[in-house]
Amino acid sequence: MIPLRETAAGVSFSVRVQPRASRTAIAGVMGDALKVAVAAPPVEGKANEALIRFFAELLEVPRSAVGIVSGESSRNKVVQVDGVSAEFIRGRLRV
Fold first, then answer.
1. Which run of H or E residues covers position 56?
2. What is the spatial distance between Cα 47 and Cα 72, in angstroms, rounded to a whole number?
3. How far apart (Å, rounded) are the C-alpha atoms in residues 38 and 26?
């Protein structure tokens, strides 16, 4: 179970990204982070955009509600989803 940090704005959690995968999907848990395989390459922000789009669709929230708080140029990122609770995230991610 990954730790979720609930704030006044929403929920943030750690993500470990694996770019250039065969498909975009949750690949498991790695330490305290959710491991996500992303089909996009890590150039010109394409992997970051694919990660944001993936979480927006999975959680059924607008893309503007999902953001990368830290680690934009790293495989280790912190993602924040605004306007939701930790319970909602746990139910959707099943982690």
1. helix 46-59
2. 10
3. 9
| Cβ atoms of 11 and 86 closer than 8 Å | yes
Look at the chain and count its residues: 95
Contact, 77 vs 51, CB < 8 A? yes
Q: Tens digits of per-residue pLDDT, 31-40?
A: 999 999 999 9
**Structural contact between residues 82 and 65, judged by C-beta atoms closer than 8 angstroms:** yes
pTM over 0.85: yes
Q: Does residue 30 carry a pLDDT above 70?
A: yes
Q: Please tell me what DSSP assigns to residue 23.
A: S
H helix or E strand, kind and range, residue 57: helix 46-59
Hunting for tokens 């730790």 — which residue is that? 3
Q: CA 11, CA 43: separation in Å to the nearest integer?
A: 27
